[in-house]
């Protein structure tokens, strides 16, 4: 399983999103949420540049192909062949590429392949040659390949990076790859991590990756092994995937977790995911919640998602809520979401509903925009 990190590691910046549950955070133990770090690409040493010629015609042809446009599937297949025959030459060539998405994709391809054939050599190359974003991306790709056999062995790639954000990226790579082979083994590895931020990152990634493979098994493991924030964060990730694939099953399981940490946050994630596939069913489920606070949050999540695709239907449904407090909050949330996505959409709704009961709330949202 090859994971593309180009969408995570954009040139010049790495952005890591915070986990879904609010909680107290130790600034010394983890980076600030939504933190951004800016790094420069690696500058190849003269010896590295000389090594490029060892790749022969394949790399030369690939360079000529890339000079004409973006990297193609044919080009990636050609690069994979070079990696099989001479990974060091392929790595040296990739380092000479100009910054951008193609360079990132080539680095991923090279170090994933090299990590699968000779991880020790790949790790040594990274340690001696790469820095910044290149080092993080390459370490994550080698870790991915190594984790298919052993998450414990993949720790050698994790040791290549020292800062919390890059280490978090490599940890997510280890977990996402290892889950496909043995989720229980990766889970044990994650639980053994001593750094609180790294353990939390690994367990959240575990909930996300395992729930794509087998949500019921993931849910059972979470219930038996996690507590507190760790359980809450993993459950949020679980609901994001299970809620999209089988929301009724997810809702039935979540109903048994009412007293567990993160119930409201997880329910909000389920509401959001369910609303993408069947908003009316999601809305009906949300209204059945017995806890007033949770019900309001679930309804808001459904309506704010629903309104972006079916504004008239979602607003009419929200306007029919009997509880005035829940109704007003849902309508305000819907109009805020609509206005944030496209102010013209809110204007259109107002023009096409001149006498709607919710019009006053819509006007209030529009008039407060920008205040």
Structural class, by secondary structure, is mainly alpha
Q: In angstroms, what is the radius of gyration? A: 24 Å
Distance between the termini: 48 Å
SS elements, strand count: 3
Which strand order does the major sheet show? Answer: 1-2-3
Q: What coarse outline follows from CA principal-axis ratios?
A: globular
Overall pLDDT level = 87
The description of the largest β-sheet is: 3 strands, antiparallel
Question: Count of DSSP helices?
Answer: 21
Question: Which range does the strand content fall in?
Answer: under 5%
Helicity, in percent? 55-70%
Low-confidence stretches: 7-40, 44-55
Task: Report the order of strands and helices.
Answer: EEEHHHHHHHHHHHHHHHHHHHHH
Could you characterize the architecture of this molecule?
The structure is a single chain. Residues 7-40 and 44-55 have low confidence and may be disordered. The protein has helices at residues 46-51, 57-67, 73-85, 87-95, 101-117, 119-129, 132-147, 155-158, 164-181, 183-191, 196-213, 215-225, 228-245, 247-255, 263-277, 279-287, 292-306, 311-319, 324-341, 343-352, 359-368, and strands at 9-10, 13-15, 36-37. The longest helix is centred in the middle third of the chain and has 18 residues, at 164-181. The relative contact order is 0.07. Helix 9 runs parallel beside helix 11. A hairpin with a 2-residue loop joins strand 1 and strand 2 (13-15). The chain has a domain at 1-211. It is mainly alpha-helical and 371 residues long.
């Amino acid at each position: 399983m090859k994971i593309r990190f180009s969408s995570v590691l954009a040139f010049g910046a790495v952005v890591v999103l915070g986990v879904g549950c609010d909680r107290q955070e130790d600034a010394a133990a983890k980076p600030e949420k939504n933190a951004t770090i800016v790094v420069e690409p690696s500058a190849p040493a003269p010896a590295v540049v000389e090594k490029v010629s060892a790749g022969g015609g394949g790399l030369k042809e690939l360079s000529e192909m890339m000079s004409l446009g973006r990297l193609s599937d044919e080009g990636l297949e050609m690069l994979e062949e070079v990696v099989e025959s001479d990974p060091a030459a392929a790595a040296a060539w990739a380092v000479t590429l100009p910054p951008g998405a193609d360079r990132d994709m080539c680095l991923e391809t090279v170090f994933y392949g090299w990590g699968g054939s000779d991880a020790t050599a790949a790790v040594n190359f990274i340690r001696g040659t790469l820095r910044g974003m290149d080092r993080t991306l390459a370490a994550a790709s080698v870790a991915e390949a190594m984790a298919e056999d052993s998450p414990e062995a993949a720790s050698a790639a994790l040791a290549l990076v020292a800062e919390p954000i890059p280490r978090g990226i490599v940890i997510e790579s280890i977990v996402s790859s290892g889950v496909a082979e043995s989720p229980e083994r990766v889970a044990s590895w994650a639980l053994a991590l001593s750094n609180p931020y790294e353990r939390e990152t690994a367990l959240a990634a575990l909930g996300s990756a395992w729930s794509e493979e087998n949500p019921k098994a993931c849910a059972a493991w979470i219930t038996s092994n996690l507590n507190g924030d760790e359980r809450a964060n993993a459950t949020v990730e679980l609901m994001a995937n299970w809620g999209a694939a089988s929301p009724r099953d997810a809702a039935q399981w979540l109903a048994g977790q009412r007293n567990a940490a993160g119930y409201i946050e997880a329910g909000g994630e389920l509401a959001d995911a369910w609303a993408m596939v069947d908003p009316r069913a999601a809305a009906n489920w949300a209204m059945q919640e017995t806890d007033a606070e949770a019900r309001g949050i679930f309804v808001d999540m459904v309506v704010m998602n629903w309104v972006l695709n079916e504004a008239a239907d979602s607003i009419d449904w929200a306007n029919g809520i009997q509880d005035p407090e829940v109704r007003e909050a849902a309508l305000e949330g819907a109009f805020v979401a609509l206005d944030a996505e496209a102010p013209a959409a809110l204007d259109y709704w107002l023009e096409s509903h001149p006498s709607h009961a919710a019009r006053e709330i819509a006007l209030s949202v529009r008039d407060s925009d920008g205040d």
